[in-house]
Amino acid sequence: MMERKQRLETLRDELVERIDRYRDHKEQRAGPLDKDMEEQAIELQNDEVVDALEREAEDELRQVMHALARIDGGEGELCEVCEEPIAGERLEALPFATLCRDCAEPR
Ligand SMILES: [Zn+2]
């Protein structure tokens, strides 16, 4: 339980750092447009990749924060939907999971 919280806190710090780096990268890119068309096209593609990575990291961060809040509330190991305990191996693989496998993958 404590261990999971520590893993989540580490993950949170990593994600915050990663999002910072993505933002820095984009700010640095906002320089003068003295490059040729091909370079500009490549950079535009890179920006799209960085945008997608940033969104992904933000989503994950949101989940991590949510899971941490539930742990602090004493219900970190319970499924948000059915309130059954989440399997230990699932929390091991996905420390930010807040749904049991059945609720996360409805049939
Ligand atoms: Zn459930």
From TrEMBL:
Keyword Lipid biosynthesis among record annotations: no
Domain Zinc finger DksA/TraR C4-type intervals: 77-106
InterPro entries to which the protein is assigned, alphabetical: DksA-like_N, Znf_DskA_TraR, Znf_DskA_TraR_CS
Coiled-coil parts of chain: 5-70
Pfam families per UniProt: DksA-like_N, zf-dskA_traR
Keyword annotations: Coiled coil, Metal-binding, Zinc, Zinc-finger
Domain (DnaK suppressor protein-like N-terminal): residue spans on this chain: 5-71
Transmembrane segments: none
ZnF locations on chain (dksA C4-type): 79-103
PANTHER family: GENERAL STRESS PROTEIN 16O, RNA POLYMERASE-BINDING TRANSCRIPTION FACTOR DKSA-RELATED
Name of the protein: TraR/DksA C4-type zinc finger protein
Species of origin: Halomonas alkalicola
